[in-house]
Amino acid sequence: MSTAPVAARPHLLPWFIASVVGVGALAYFSIVTGVADLDLSDPGQVWELLRISRGPRTAALILAGSSLAVAGMIMQMLARNRFVEPSTAGTTDFATLGLLLITLFAPATPQIGKMVAGAVMALLGTALFLLLLKSLRVRGVLVVPLMGLMLGGIVSSIVTFIAYQEQLSQSLSAWTSADLSGVIEGRYELLWLMVVVLAVTVIMADRFTVAGLGEDFTTNLGMDPRRVMFVGLSVVAVTTSIVVVTVGSIPFLGLIVPNLVSLFIGDHLRRAIPWVAVLGAGLLLACDTAGRIINFPYEIPLGVMMGVIGSLLFLVLLLKRSRRVG
Predict the structure, then answer these.
(1) Number of domains into which the chain is organized
(2) Considering the domain boundaries, does residue 1 fall inside one?
(3) Is the pTM here over 0.85, yes or no?
């Protein structure tokens, strides 16, 4: 399988450039869309609005969209299933449980500490999911995500019960439903850690691809499958935790984008990463901007928009896969 980067594949390069330009256009519309108008005659007002609100919101959309889409692709590689991603494997629910526990026992913990707690629980939850996956005798295309949804549902029920008992329902709502109306300067900077996470993903891309072929194949190539698996799960856990603690849970993004990219790029992780990152950012920007326009001057939360659009695209993928199997 060819490992040439996007720039070395002439027939794909124009499409990739067009995608980047499209994301840039969506970022522009995200910046200029809102209740407050940008008064170009008052540069000070424009700068303050961009610095405090519009800029952080657009940056958060790009960082969260690209990183979460790449995390979903890594999960699909490690689980060897196209319909697995943080929201269908219980990872998001375990991250929420970690945030709830740290809020209960150490409410004064700074945001970085909450991220660590969420990442640890997300890592443990994802490891549990893969452990349960190994015990399955029948690993059908739909059985794996169904098991993940059931696991996540159990954890979500426990989290909801504890939050209700401890009067933390409002905090739980902020974690479980992405809403960027509160993303301002000082409340999104943790997302810049995603640049480091994406860099680790690029460095480990070939190893993740090999790990997706099975433990025996990975071992025969002289790699430690457990180490590769741990790094991959850590990337997914940290990504999920940071996104949940800053903007909230975003469903289906890590499932839809990698599946769409695989249709014309294939399964090689290194080759697909730029496409997945760009399209993930573009999809979030489009959904968030549409949510602000449809019911202007009010806005539909990003989690609701992604839930509707993502579930429709998920259904299309399921129908396409069932026809292929049939």
Answers:
(1) 1
(2) no
(3) yes
